[in-house]
Amino acid sequence: MTGATEKIKIKGTKSISIKEIAKICGVSTATVSRVLNDNGRFSDETKNKVLRTVEKLGYKTNNIAKSLRTKKTRSIGIIVPDITNEYFANIILAIQNFFFPQGYSVLVYNTNEDQGKEDLYLKDLEAKCVDGLIYFFCMEDRGQIDAIRKKIPVVFVDRNPNRKGAVVVESDNYTGGFLATEELIKSGCRNIVILRHILTNSTIVGRYKGYRDALNKYGIPFNPDLVLDMYVNANASKEAICRLIECGIAFDGIFACTDWLAVGALMALRKHNIKVPQQVKVVGFDNVSISEYSSPSITTINQDKTRLGEIAAQMLLDMIDGKSIDEKNIILPVELIKRETT
Amino acid sequence: MTGATEKIKIKGTKSISIKEIAKICGVSTATVSRVLNDNGRFSDETKNKVLRTVEKLGYKTNNIAKSLRTKKTRSIGIIVPDITNEYFANIILAIQNFFFPQGYSVLVYNTNEDQGKEDLYLKDLEAKCVDGLIYFFCMEDRGQIDAIRKKIPVVFVDRNPNRKGAVVVESDNYTGGFLATEELIKSGCRNIVILRHILTNSTIVGRYKGYRDALNKYGIPFNPDLVLDMYVNANASKEAICRLIECGIAFDGIFACTDWLAVGALMALRKHNIKVPQQVKVVGFDNVSISEYSSPSITTINQDKTRLGEIAAQMLLDMIDGKSIDEKNIILPVELIKRETT
Fold first, then answer.
1. Mutate which of B105, B154, B232, B321 to disrupt the A interface (most A C-beta within 10 Å)?
2. Residue A199 belongs to what domain range?
3. Which end of chain B is more exposed for a tag (fewer CB within 10 A), N or C?
4. What's the whole-model pTM score?
5. Window A:138-197, CB contacts with B under 8 Å
6. pLDDT tens profile A283-319
7. Please, are residues B121 and B148 in contact by the beta-carbon 8 Å criterion?
8. What is the domain-level CATH number for residue B30?
9. Using an 8 Å Cβ cutoff, are B200 and B140 in contact?
């Protein structure tokens, strides 16, 4: 019989309580509540009567009042670096698809890797009283990351803050970096460039470690001149590879830490009439559409974006529901997708 | 002195009222309120004292209570077909960037062009009491579209429901379709395929009308065999163009109503060793990254995604603030971006 006393005026609607609806329909308030929440038994006749009355009179389950009573807003926040990047968008989509049938809506905050923005977003999420947060952080201040965890349930996705007790869902970036580099080595490459995101987070650290270990395993000396750091966009990697070519530094393979960096590398190679895969081989990371539809199509490391989102969402829901999380760090497997650039 | 009586327990924080903060700081509740809302005059000393106390004691402007008092949730909804499509993601990003500094957060709902989902989302947005809606509808039921407009402020973006009094921001799709087709004609094409979204909405209707009028202006007979309808994905357009080639239907130009459809067309042409732009020319629509970074890069019609989002957001904010909207249908200009496929 929750909601029986709710009576809130909402713009453009008449204000009416469950009690009044019950009276009009000649049923109990409990029955009205069951129909509105689609919870429990009632006849089709009762259902139709109640719903018609509700519609006619403009009653709404007023979530504001409900939130005040339950201390739940039935909303979760997502802080994400770039929703225009299909990799992140796919994860957000999986999270929204998971949470909506559970009655939760999703607030999206885009940082563009700006810590100042991220800081403001954390304050806003707190003020908006979201029930939980899915957090792709760029914040370097681990104190702030710990602070938000004390206030609301938080699941970290993609990037691991490496904090005690933090709940994290990530891809096996180390194995991804290893497989990408091994693919280049097995295709005959000996001078392998790595294109990295300039922001050092766990994804890049893992992929780089995989790259180093693969070189090591196959007895290929590491050359620091071949490690190129940049912001993730195709033009940046195009310029970096062009500079390398113009400086006369020899290379025969490129491991790009994202598919978009691989796209820029391909543009640079095309500009200098270097044939792919004959003269230089390329492997990307993420397996977003551009890797499949680029010409040549790009060999890449697949991340299971839908599973990353679904598992993060399930863990966050469990935390919101007060369930204990046994395994706090889920690492999803990656796989090599062989295409035309190797 | 709003907020002086707010006192809500939030998970993980101590519950404390403005009154108590005022007492501790030795200032009035009005002063505390002014500091918290950054509104009006107070000394730096007072500000620091209040903020330190607030931080120490974990007071928060509890937005739930505030919402109940103001009848505003300071949130807006966006219903969008596909956040993984960079075109929509760019508009969402502009909307979020506009609204956040105004104190609003953004709830994102992805329909995947599913009317059933859209229907549920509309109900949820109402129940969540959002202050307004930015609406890329797929709904064919104009009655439902009218119903939501009666309840909350709505701005339609991209797709025009053609309803009296509806506030709409859209690109000049007609001119876009005309310019794309004219570009193909001026490059020598006479048999021009059009690849359309199977869902007939105003964007497609406008582009198609532009295509027909351009053919007409240049005295090129219309051939219904060259009108191909499909869902927007690269594989669908690849298959459609392959079928056309295999059926022996002659064509020398393709106007793809989105860049992703153009990408699929290029794949089909490549598969059949048809040279672009020598044998067949292609123009896309949207100007998303794939058109710039594809090889060959794709001539396309630019839509100003950021402006679409910003103008829609400004209009929605004006409506929420009760301002009158003089111009209810904003049509943004488009432009031809010439690249390698023409």
1. B105
2. 173-302
3. N
4. 0.84
5. 150-152
6. 999 999 999 999 899 999 999 999 999 999 999 999 9
7. no
8. 1.10.260.40
9. no
